[in-house]
């Protein structure tokens, strides 16, 4: 597994600043989110509580409320300005709650969530055991989770262009599907299914891509990122390297999307831990089992 670390304060700051511009640039996020909603067709029950983790400006939360009108829908995001912007999608007829929290510290009771949905958020969490452990904690037995995340080939052209300019990390790094799948299994999630989809967006010039990334808040938050301003010479070298990739008059940008779903396991199902497996039962289930 990759050893890079994200700066959560920087992630929060970037997305907070992008709250007012996010929906001007989120065409890919909407397409991926709409496809992710289709995965919810595997869940045939009527949920009581649905949670949208990394809800951003709340478009996905509103669609979840539309799909499950009788459910309590909770939009969770770590950036408070995003949740303020999400108010525009929460109508009096189909309202959803807004909660500011991190994906690894959800303010929800154990086994209280029927459906956990997260569109293009999990790539901003580098502690996968904590992330999927928290998903396991809040999911009901038989509950359903569906999420999407960016894979390591995302923005590979921009990463290569920066590599021509200097040796500093300028583009965020994302975890491989196999690392994600292993973390899901280790957490105890049942029957995980993962798929990879690839998208290529094109731009008139590299600056348009950079403007879009800033507008989304999707800029580099690695702890190892270079501090301070990038020199003009380095920036020009990056632009020249990216221009060399122009195809059919357009600048390409690749996006690798990992899409997955899994189920909350029955009570007591073992989960992997270092050195073996562990199963958890409530005390009530053990009452009366002592031999007399």
TrEMBL record:
Record keywords, A-Z: Biotin biosynthesis, Methyltransferase, S-adenosyl-L-methionine, Transferase, Ubiquinone
- What Pfam families does the record point to? Methyltransf_11 (PF08241)
Which domain of life does the protein's organism represent? Bacteria
GO MF term list: carboxyl-O-methyltransferase activity; malonyl-CoA methyltransferase activity; S-adenosylmethionine-dependent methyltransferase activity
Q: In which pathway does it act?
A: Cofactor biosynthesis; biotin biosynthesis
Q: Which SUPFAM superfamilies match?
A: S-adenosyl-L-methionine-dependent methyltransferases
This enzyme catalyses:
malonyl-[ACP] + S-adenosyl-L-methionine = malonyl-[ACP] methyl ester + S-adenosyl-L-homocysteine
What EC designation does it have?
2.1.1.197
The record's family statement is: Belongs to the methyltransferase superfamily.
State the function annotated in the UniProt record: Converts the free carboxyl group of a malonyl-thioester to its methyl ester by transfer of a methyl group from S-adenosyl-L-methionine (SAM). It allows to synthesize pimeloyl-ACP via the fatty acid synthetic pathway.
According to UniProt, the name of this protein is: Malonyl-[acyl-carrier protein] O-methyltransferase
Q: Which organism is it from?
A: Rhodanobacter denitrificans
């Amino acid at each position: 597994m990759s050893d890079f670390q994200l700066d959560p304060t920087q992630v929060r700051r970037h997305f907070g600043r992008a709250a007012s511009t996010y929906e001007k640039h989120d065409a890919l996020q909407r397409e991926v989110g709409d496809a992710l909603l289709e995965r919810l067709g595997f869940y045939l029950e009527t949920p009581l509580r649905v949670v949208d983790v990394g809800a951003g400006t709340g478009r996905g939360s509103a669609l979840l409320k539309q799909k499950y009108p009788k459910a309590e829908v909770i939009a969770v995001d770590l950036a408070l300005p995003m949740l303020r912007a999400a108010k525009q999608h929460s109508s009096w007829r189909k309202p959803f709650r807004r909660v500011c929290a991190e994906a690894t510290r959800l303010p929800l009771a154990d086994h209280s969530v029927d459906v956990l949905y997260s569109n293009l958020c999990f790539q901003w969490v580098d502690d996968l055991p904590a992330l999927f452990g928290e998903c396991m904690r809040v999911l009901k037995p038989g509950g359903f989770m569906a999420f999407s995340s960016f894979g390591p080939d995302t923005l590979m052209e921009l990463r290569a262009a920066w590599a021509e300019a200097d040796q500093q990390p300028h583009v965020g790094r994302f975890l491989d599907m196999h690392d994600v799948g292993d973390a899901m299994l280790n957490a105890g999630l049942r029957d995980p299914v993962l798929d990879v989809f690839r998208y290529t967006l094109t731009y008139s010039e590299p600056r348009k891509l950079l403007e879009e990334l800033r507008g989304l808040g999707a800029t580099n938050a690695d702890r190892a990122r270079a501090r301070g301003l990038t020199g003009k010479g380095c920036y020009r070298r990056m632009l020249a390297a990216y221009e060399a990739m122009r195809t059919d008059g357009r600048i390409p940008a690749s996006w690798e999307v990992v899409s997955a779903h899994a189920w909350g396991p029955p009570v007591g199902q073992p989960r992997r831990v270092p050195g073996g497996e562990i199963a958890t039962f409530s005390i009530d289930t053990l009452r009366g089992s002592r031999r007399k």
